[in-house]
Design goal:
The protein is α+β, with helices and mostly antiparallel strands. It contains two helices and ten strands. Helix 2 links the parallel strand 6 and strand 7. Helix 1 runs parallel beside helix 2. It starts with a strand and ends with a strand.
Length: about 160
């Protein structure tokens, strides 16, 4: 098993069945994992904010509204079919309630943006662990499509 870290604002792809994409410290951030069971390929993004501003040159993975289409495009380039893609989400917590904006907490905003982007792409969410007030770690096992999520006070669980 080869762990491949997906850091803040990154997107990574894999067709290597021995690889596990992993993203750590998903507080208000949202981890998005996509996997195609036919192609045995997957990708993961570590989303930091909900929406890209017009003049922003930041990486596609930083924003919910750009990370999802970027993930889909990259997986199609690897030979996946859009209709086969399944999604898993983790994170979106409200770990620092004092940082809530007038529109809500950033974790909920990130989760909403990712869900909207997945809906636009026509991709169903197979599992999720969102909200609460703890950070999470998310792993996508490329060979099986299994997604495991854990937080400091929880036993690792498949979603």
């Amino acid at each position: 098993m080869n762990l491949v870290p997906v850091k803040l604002s990154e997107v990574k792809f894999s067709k290597d069945e021995a690889e596990v994409l992993v993203t750590y410290s998903l507080g208000s951030c949202v981890g998005v994992a996509l996997w195609d069971p036919q192609c045995k390929a997957g990708g993961m993004a570590h989303v930091f904010l909900p929406h890209k501003s017009r003049n922003d040159d930041e990486p596609f993975g930083k924003y919910g509204d750009t990370a999802v289409p970027y993930l889909v495009s990259g997986l199609l380039d690897l030979g996946c079919k859009k209709e086969n893609l399944q999604a898993w989400l983790a994170g979106g917590a409200n770990v620092i309630p004092e940082l809530a904006t007038p529109w809500g907490d950033i974790g909920a905003m990130n989760a909403r943006a990712v869900r909207e982007a997945l809906s636009k792409e026509g991709i169903r969410v197979a599992g999720e662990r969102l909200g609460g007030n703890q950070s999470r770690t998310m792993r996508l096992y490329i060979g099986s499509g299994k997604v495991i999520v854990c937080s400091p006070d929880e036993v690792p669980t498949e979603i």
